[in-house]
Design a protein that fits this description.
alpha/beta, Rossmann fold, 6 helices, 7 strands, globular, UspA, UspA domain-containing protein, Rossmann-like_a/b/a_fold
Length: 173
Amino acid sequence: METLEEDVEEYSWREVVLPHLVPVVPDAQPELERETVERRRGRDLLVAVDFGPNSKHAFDWALAHIARIADTVHLVHAVSSVHNEIVYEKSRELMEDLAVEAFKTLLVRTKARIVEGDAGKVICREADRLKPAAVILGTRGRGLIQSVLQGSVSEYCFHNCKAAPIIIVPGKG
């Protein structure tokens, strides 16, 4: 675990060690002259995950419509405390399952991070840190009135994340 000082508030997070699924291959020469290092390296995509079905749907959508083989999918999960071992273990299991699925589906690399704090702020902070090609998140599936009263993570990210485009994947049905 590492704590960073950022402005005035503390930033606590734990990196999740995922199974090493992608074999290490030395860099090959580009097949075409126009193929650049940036293209071979791939892009970073940030996917916000939780235990809800709409989060899983957004993850599946990102793999089907956005991700390419050379990309790295960064999974971010916001929790109330990174020191709670039960929460950490369940979150790690979720991210491990998603990483295996991403590799089986599209052969993409996956990195995962569990971050302490409010979900919207955590996602925006991680987007600022990574500068991804896109931030993908699902909706919670609440109605308009409930979202206005309780707040919406996707709406917060839509208005406050300036580092990358925000893709909000609506829930099924």
